Amino acid sequence: MVDPYVHGYHPRESTRLLDQAATLVDLLHSDTSYPPGSLVLEAGCGVGAQTVPLAKNSPGTKIISLDISRSSAAEAKRKAEEEGLANVRVLQGDIFHLPFPKGTFDHLFVCFVLEHLPRPVEALLILKEFIKPGGTITAIEGDHGSTYFHPDSLAARKVIGCQVRLQERAGGNAMIGRELYPLLTRAGFADVSVSPRMVYADGSRPAMADGFTRKTFTAMIEGVRDAALAAGMMGAGEFDVGVRDLYRTAEEDGVFCYTFFKATGKRG
Amino acid sequence: MVDPYVHGYHPRESTRLLDQAATLVDLLHSDTSYPPGSLVLEAGCGVGAQTVPLAKNSPGTKIISLDISRSSAAEAKRKAEEEGLANVRVLQGDIFHLPFPKGTFDHLFVCFVLEHLPRPVEALLILKEFIKPGGTITAIEGDHGSTYFHPDSLAARKVIGCQVRLQERAGGNAMIGRELYPLLTRAGFADVSVSPRMVYADGSRPAMADGFTRKTFTAMIEGVRDAALAAGMMGAGEFDVGVRDLYRTAEEDGVFCYTFFKATGKRG
């Protein structure tokens, strides 16, 4: 059996998600700011990695952040309190059975959630009902198929493939980023606009190589080692070579590329 | 035998290069502008697709554009005259045996050239000698390994692989874009800075889907059909399915992604 949330819920994973958020905050979130007075739903907030920048960029709004995992929601709540975010309320709950009347929210924010859902269009259709007419959706997803690097390595590409297949077995799609435009369009959102956010790390950008290539992406891939070996997807030796080759791309003459996609749309 | 210039010299190829240039001019060239009085070498100008925006963005400079192919140089010259570009001189000649004293140029511009060279670092070392100390290099390359799309298709990925392997057999590297930082650094350039330029086409960007996905990228892949079949890389039926699947990604619910890399550096 594969855990339905492919990344798991271990403390180390929580650290990874925070490192990721710190490196990517500007790239992904700096242009999301809601007008004062807005009521915003963050559906699937996890441990709150995105909740903090979301709340800080939109003072004067009220943000409700929800996650199905009790421990993640507790962690997100702790973090919001630690940051003194008075405008955030964290709830444990199922985004498909929201404890609110339909049409409650001015804006919906979903980040790194659709990738884990077997039927993302249906999910969007359900969530759309809770947005007021004229309100917006912002959806952010990565795409593991956007990964390439130098030096190139077959083993490194194969370990990434393990993560993609594990996520697929768990009902998700690790290459969903590229699909945001057709997904939001099929779910009936209007004025859909997608903006790719490419992470590029080379020897002149050591903080990005460290924060993203090493501590975010490669750490995530390392995190599926046991599951990949248990599933017989790769041998231990080859898996470790692949991970070593990914770390290699963070050295001074290495290059690493990855792209996130950020989509916005309107409930007509 | 494979033609050493993998894209060939046919009239249709020339049209493709112009369509490409028209779609990509802003993305690739809008931030390249040399100060009046500069002497600029465009090494490997081909049919002049980049020569026109280069000259238009830098009035008051003198640009010498050189290509080894007599017919390409003639075409570039015709185009420069047609556009009334008084600041461009087009020459037929070998970029590795330049008819100029060393240290002649303030700036060197090389676009879609390194991808065709077996030893790009050595090429850069040779060309560097012709830049004045303190002068700059600007290098632009694509990277076919940066290509991904929706709907995904194994056949489409395989036809792209044919182009990559044909270019490799001809001594080039169709995935050189990601390597610009280490290449320029190894060639001894200082202050090397690389900026990825991602092409993203979805249903909201029909001009990009038409101009790039269809008329630039897929047309280029179609152009290697005979060579790929002759080399036994794919069967005709499967090749045609791959090309059809690439065109499919330019439809309203399709998505196409490709990344160019633009590097600048200084001769110390």
Layout of SSEs?
2 copies of one chain form a homodimer.
Chain A lengths: L10 H19 L9 E5 L7 H7 L4 E6 L2 H13 L5 E5 L12 E7 L8 H9 L2 E11 L6 E3 L3 H16 L10 H7 L3 E12 L4 H17 L2 H6 L5 H13 L6 E12 L2
Parallel strand pairs in A: 1-2, 1-4, 2-3, 4-5
Antiparallel strand pairs in A: 5-8, 6-8, 7-8
Helix pairs in contact in A: 1-7, 5-9
Task: Tell me what you see in this structure.
The structure is a homodimer of 268-residue chains. With 268 residues, chain A is α/β, with parallel strands linked by helices. Chain A is built from 9 helices and 8 strands. In chain A, strands 1, 2, 3, 4, 5, 6, 7 and 8 form an 8-stranded mixed β-sheet that branches. In chain A, helix 1 packs across helix 7 (206-222) and helix 5 (154-169) crosses helix 9. The radius of gyration of chain A is 18 Å and the shape is globular. The model of chain A has no long low-confidence stretch (mean pLDDT 93). Chain A binds chain B through residues 143, 145-146, 148-150, 152, 175, 178-179, 181-182, 185-186, 192-194, 196, 198, 200, 202-204, 253-255, 257, 259, and chain B through 143, 145-146, 148-150, 152, 175, 178-179, 181-182, 185-186, 192-194, 196, 198, 200, 202-204, 253-255, 257, 259.
